[in-house]
Amino acid sequence: MSLERFLNQAVSSWMSEEGPESDIVLSSRIRLARNLDAYKFPTLFSHEEAKQVINELEGILETSSLRNFGHIELLKIDEMQPLQKRVLVEKHLISPQLAEDSPYGAVLLSENEEVSIMINEEDHIRIQCLFPGLQLKEALDAANEIDDWLERHLQYAFDEKYGYLTSCPTNVGTGLRASVMMHLPGLILTQQINRIIPAINQLGFVVRGIYGEGSEALGNIFQISNQITLGKSEEDMCRDLMGVVSQLISQERSAREALRKTSNIQLEDRVFRSLGVLTNSRIIETKEAAKCLSDVRLGIDMGYINYVSKNILNELMILTQPGFLQQYAGGPLRPHERDIRRAALIRERFIMESKNIGEE
């Protein structure tokens, strides 16, 4: 396995497989923040200390294995080109912070890309587990297994009163960030999302865009995650988030049904217009592509379209991002060139889809 393998495969297994509630919930993620007791936090440590942290993780990988997660590869950030780092961000395998602000960082990636262990980001270690659909418990179980594996070899920075110690005080305690990525076009089209987001924030959760903090909700995709990490168990935090997500699923389904009853022909027209844009455009920008892909996915989920796979849309949401387009082009592209290539790629992918269906 190599870096190229992670770069060339557009869709990770957690995006290509369907999980519970997958018409609305795209993925579930658990992230655990950990630091090593023997080193300064990454905000203060030296280049030499950063290298030592990586060496410790590399040594564990050479002498021990995670049997349930297959082969794991260590990739160093300083050995990657900017475009390569951008692709890994677009695939949700590393954070923008690790790519942009952590030259002495690294990442451990499992072969199926469900497990990503970031090294020397804001904390020494950030364990991330991604599962398709609504599978927070399964993701938490996997993250805890990896955490136990690492703790058998490492001494974590831990306080009996405050729990796991982290660079940012908001992560102290469990160090847990649980998040669910949701497709919520119904709540957008019925204009309910603006009253729902403040209510979610008041409950101690945060709503962000598709790539986390500071990002836009491209394609009506939102991340819902916990804010509190201290004073509750990991299981309680996940259960609380599940309660909020279950309410959002119910409200999204109600919104879709209301649209079917009150604006069915208008919604169907919107879906097929977007399908027409995707299959015929010669130039298309990222935001327009994301909006049209969202409309088509909604059309599939509501039964308007039965000859396009959901998986093609997951794939195209990644393939049409700027980094991936340039990766496939073999080098940098100007914005206008990216828009032309994006449109061509989408057309070609839909042609492939129609051929696959015709052969069935």
Automatic annotation (TrEMBL):
Sequence motif: RDXXRA motif of the pArg binding pocket involved in allosteric regulation, positions: 338-343
Enzyme class: transferase
Leader peptide range in chain numbering: none
Domain Phosphagen kinase C-terminal: 24-255
UniProt KW keywords: Allosteric enzyme, ATP-binding, Kinase, Nucleotide-binding, Transferase
Known EC number: 2.7.14.1
A Pfam family reported for this protein in Swiss-Prot or TrEMBL: ATP-gua_Ptrans
Record CDD domains: bacterial_phosphagen_kinase
Domain of life of the native organism: Bacteria
Catalytic activity: L-arginyl-[protein] + ATP = N(omega)-phospho-L-arginyl-[protein] + ADP + H(+)
Entry binding sites for ATP: 27-31, 92, 126, 177-181, 208-213
PANTHER family per record: ARGININE KINASE 1-RELATED (PTHR11547:SF38), ARGININE OR CREATINE KINASE (PTHR11547)
Function, as annotated: Catalyzes the specific phosphorylation of arginine residues in a large number of proteins. Is part of the bacterial stress response system. Protein arginine phosphorylation has a physiologically important role and is involved in the regulation of many critical cellular processes, such as protein homeostasis, motility, competence, and stringent and stress responses, by regulating gene expression and protein activity.
Family: Belongs to the ATP:guanido phosphotransferase family.
This protein's name: Protein-arginine kinase
Organism: Neobacillus rhizophilus
